[in-house]
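in:
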């Protein structure tokens, strides 16, 4: 039986999980791959902390070079994260003609195009199933299972931190700050949670998925990104009364030679299965021409779910090595010569429906003035709701619009905010009507 040597960079939560699976599932992995997967070396700056795992013959070192320059190591698994030393290590591993597996979505979103070119030059594989959606096989699904499909659209919940916070606010009526604090106590949110709650982690994943779905270069810079800091229990309660749930969605849609790509809080109908994806769970709904609508659901993070995704990549590469093949499946699902730049649709061109909430002055004519400004900007109102108590002379006014253009809505809201009709900035939440 052929032995395939593996080196891990980073012995944190996920690195520990990968080491556990490689040791505890040794016989299962051998029976499924036909190879002995030998974890030869782990490199981490902390080699003293007990991870609760017997490493046996595996070397634990504090020098990454022991992994990157070892001629025996076939596969390097990068689990450090970030875009500093991890980037240097991955490029070095590829240049040393080692296959690389990573869960580093930020690095892939920012430097993925260059990494793909480097892997091609050195004729090695770059795999990243664990980068998007934890244990959900999103990458394999888009790259292989849906190979005969044109992907029309994707809607996804890809950040467990945000989903947990929104679930807590919805179910308990607590504030955003209270829900965030609880998420941090339970380990669902980092001490500095900006990457998650401001939507950037989700945008990294959407950039990768767009490339796989459409044969386009990874394009992070043009994705519209909003987070969930401004979502209040009041808005979640209003959404519920209208039959909607608020989720932070990654939305990707094809429009001819453009892609619509956006991340923001979204109201979705309670008939949509994504509305029932709660707590820290993730899900993605894909609409393709041959398959129709499909959905993946699972843990988007965590030691063992993420480690499971890493092991799926290890197994794929091990099978390639055994059969004497390399790069059997293109890294981004298309041969590199077929990957093209594809612009992302300007957000101002978006056409959708909107939830608008104003803190309106309780004066005669205020409602007609707000409605008038919306009408002057070609925005038709489907319904108007005035609920809740008057506070300091103000009352919440909620409007649901018919389909309107983003540019029109933003212009109208700027004009309304400049009047004495409202106090503070209006709340805007986009509505996605299509059920999966």
């Amino acid at each position: 039986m052929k032995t395939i040597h593996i080196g891990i960079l980073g012995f944190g939560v996920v690195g520990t999980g990968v080491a556990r699976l490689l040791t505890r599932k040794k016989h299962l992995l051998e029976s499924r791959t036909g190879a002995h997967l030998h974890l030869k070396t782990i490199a981490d700056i902390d080699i003293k902390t007990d991870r609760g795992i017997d490493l046996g013959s595996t070397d634990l070192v504090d020098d990454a070079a022991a992994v990157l320059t070892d001629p025996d190591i076939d596969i390097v698994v990068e689990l450090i994260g970030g875009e500093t030393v991890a980037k240097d290590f991955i490029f070095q591993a590829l240049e040393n003609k080692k296959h690389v597996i990573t869960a580093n979505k930020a690095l892939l979103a920012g430097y993925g195009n260059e990494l793909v070119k480097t892997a091609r030059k050195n004729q090695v594989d770059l795999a990243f199933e664990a980068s998007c959606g934890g244990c959900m096989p999103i990458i394999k699904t888009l790259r292989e299972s849906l190979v005969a499909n044109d992907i029309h659209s994707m809607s996804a919940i890809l950040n467990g931190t945000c989903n947990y916070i929104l679930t807590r606010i919805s179910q308990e009526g607590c504030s955003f700050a209270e829900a965030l604090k609880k998420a941090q106590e339970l380990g669902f949110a980092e001490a500095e949670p900006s990457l998650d709650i401001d939507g950037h982690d989700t945008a990294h994943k959407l950039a990768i998925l767009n490339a796989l779905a459409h044969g386009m270069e990874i394009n992070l810079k043009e994705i519209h990104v909003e987070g969930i800091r401004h979502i209040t229990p009041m808005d979640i309660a209003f959404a519920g009364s209208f039959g909607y749930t608020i989720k932070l969605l990654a939305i990707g849609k094809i429009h001819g030679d453009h892609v619509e790509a956006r991340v923001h809080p979204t109201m979705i109908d309670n008939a949509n299965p994504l509305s029932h994806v709660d707590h820290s769970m993730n899900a993605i709904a894909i609409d393709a021409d041959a398959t129709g609508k499909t959905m993946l659901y699972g843990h988007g993070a965590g030691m063992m779910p993420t480690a499971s995704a890493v092991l799926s990549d290890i197994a794929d590469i091990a099978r390639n090595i055994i059969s004497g093949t390399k790069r059997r499946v293109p890294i981004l699902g298309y041969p590199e010569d077929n990957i093209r730049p594809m612009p992302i649709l300007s957000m101002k061109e978006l056409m959708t429906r909107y939830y608008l909430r104003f803190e309106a002055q309780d004066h005669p004519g205020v409602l007609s003035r707000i409605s008038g400004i919306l009408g002057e900007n070609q925005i038709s109102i489907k319904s108007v709701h005035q609920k809740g108590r008057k506070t300091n002379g103000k009352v919440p006014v909620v409007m649901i619009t018919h389909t309107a253009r983003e540019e029109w809505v933003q212009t109208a809201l700027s004009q309304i905010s400049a009047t004495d009709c409202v106090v503070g900035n209006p709340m805007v939440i986009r509505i996605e009507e299509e059920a999966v």
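note: The chain has a mean pLDDT of 95.
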